[in-house]
What does this fold into?
Amino acid sequence: MRNLSQTYLDLPAVLNPNVGNESTSMDIVKSDSDSWTFLSDLSLLRAVMPTVLVAVSLLAWYYGASLDKKPKLPLPPGSLGLPIIGETLSLMFQGQRFFEDRRERYGSVYKTHLLGSPIIRVCGPDNVRKILLSENKLVTVYWPTSVRALLGDGTVSNAIGNLHRTRRRALQRAFCYEALSEYLPVMQKVVRDHIRRWCLEKVVYGYQECKNMTFAVSAETLVGFNMESEKHKSLVHVFDVFVENLFCLPFQIPGLGFSKGMSARKRLLVEIGESLTGKAKRNDVEEASNESGEFAFSQDAMSRLLEAQGEDSLTSSELRELCLELLFAGHSTTASAATSLLLQLNKHGDVLSKVQAELKSADLSLGEQGDLTMASLGQLEYVTAVVKEVLRLSPPVGGAYRTVLKSFNMNGYEIPAGWTLTYNIRDTHNTSDLFSNVTSFDPDRWLPRSSCSKEDKFHYLPFGGGTRACVGKEFAKLFLKVFVVEIVRSCSWQLMNNDVNMSYLPVPHPVDGLPLSFTSVSSARSQVAMDM
Ligand code: HEM
It folds into this structure.
């Protein structure tokens, strides 16, 4: 990480006051011995002249050569806007409309200039396929400096090549079928506890509550925190600070976002480290008790990673950062999808009725009684379709960034090496000809034997694709299904404000936070009984 003074010295001469200071000190030397300085200036000039001439010729040659290397194809259409700020102001004013407008004007590949850097935006199944399948050949992963620093070098997101493969393999252990089955009871308990509290409080802000709930689910199932302890409860706030400051100017100045984010990172890593030490000790006890035939502890993701630490050659610091990465990667994304589920199920009474009917026929509509299993969830085709449709219509991750390694041709345009590129998931879903009535919420399209039952990988890609596809997608889908089942069978909810405006940054969410009123099924039943 470059510190401020380094950044300062890199400024061009006109902007860097230190350059002025250098000439000031020269002036002082001059005034001390003027004649000496004049002679030495002349001889210096003679000495450097040949070097200057060679340098100028080399530059002229290089310039000529680089002109030859000028792109043979045109750059994608679009505008780079004003110097330095590019089109950032238009984006701020227009929001999501900015991208829709450019896509309508320029098509599926266009250039713009946002947040200080020129960028090429790409959508459409064929273009996205080309990018996602060319990782490390044509493109490589790109994250802004602040994100890289706050997540750390030990993460999957920041790794490239073999290191990336090794870390991904390690993480995948935490999301195999067996692991998911072990997380399921904890997931279900946390979801139920939250819903029960919402019903007691009666009115809550849906988006914030979904964020709290997804953090609790991840913290308990992935890192093994006890979210009922005061110590771990206080981490919800620390984690919010961490996430809020991920995208910021990377300057370590007290009081600014980056500094706050780094302090939150430090605190989270300490807690994760303590949890790791506890687990390492527990593993020793467990090994001993296994020998004497006693029970085994149920496993969270961190324990699984710890067990295979030697095999995966992970250092303790990598392990801690991987756990932090899991907390982050699954947080706002899953919370956004859960919030969209609350919204869509409320708006579409017909869909809600079909979910209720499916739960009834699967013997799962028993209030809060039935424990869910992987098998019972696996048979819920309609619930699965509802989750899929929410991720199609409101994909939590709009797209992701890459750096272009090698210039290539896309739709007849030059995509030049060194540029930043983003592939867009939301635009790809919205323009796909695979989906009829693309803007309507229609889970039936995903039922077996219907038009989209065979998912086309690059028309529908809420979890990305290729070597960087989401590691936690099965975890996320499982959680969302549990949420649908529990919310539908245990309560009803109403929007307090029917006029819902959406914001898409950093993930889709209602601008007003989605105030909701909740009634539990049991209290609704007793109300009916009393009325009778
Ligand atoms: C609905 C919820 C989620 C959505 C929509 C989602 C979406 C995505 C997408 C689109 C990518 C690919 C980004 C790229 O191309 O660079 C990704 C990567 C990733 N996701 Fe998720 N994700 C979700 C939940 C989760 C969860 C629950 C976890 C873990 C607990 C997770 C862990 C990761 C990791 C570690 C990566 C980086 C993979 C790599 O670079 O190889 N995600 N996710």
